[in-house]
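INFO batch 0412 | record 1 of 1 | parsing
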Amino acid sequence: MSGQKALAVVEVGSTGIRLIVAAVEASGEYRVLDHAGKPVQLGRDVFVSGSVSRASMLEVIAVLRGFRELLRTYGIEPKDARVIATSALREADNRDTFTDRIALQTGFSVDIVEDIEENHLMSRLPDRPQAFVPGADGEAACAHERIERSATSGL
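INFO prediction complete | emitting tokens
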């Protein structure tokens, strides 16, 4: 990948976890190298009980461990990936405990996107390339924005 840098974004959403790996040229152009997704029910837990259940925590951590191994095949370590979470984790009473567990058990640091940023990302949804974002819901627009920011900031 001469002149390219591989970047990864993981989005932990209310209904699933999605991963995008892209090669970013020095010009800022990008090409999707890989993507993966797994449905999870964080939203169900949080919006019914107010917190993420132990079972959901274990499921999310297992998925993230799998993503970690996939990223390593592209030379990307967990500390170099962008991991974002939207409304389910933002609303969870135990979000800090959960994000700490994710960091300890996977090496990923989770950035919880606030309402205003999520709304901004959602407003950009019609402009995103459909092939770039796995999954049909709007939360994945956050991943697209993170790749664009990384490409333009040189991260």
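INFO post-check: Residues 4-153 form a domain with the Nucleotidyltransferase; domain 5 fold (CATH 3.30.420.40).
INFO record closed
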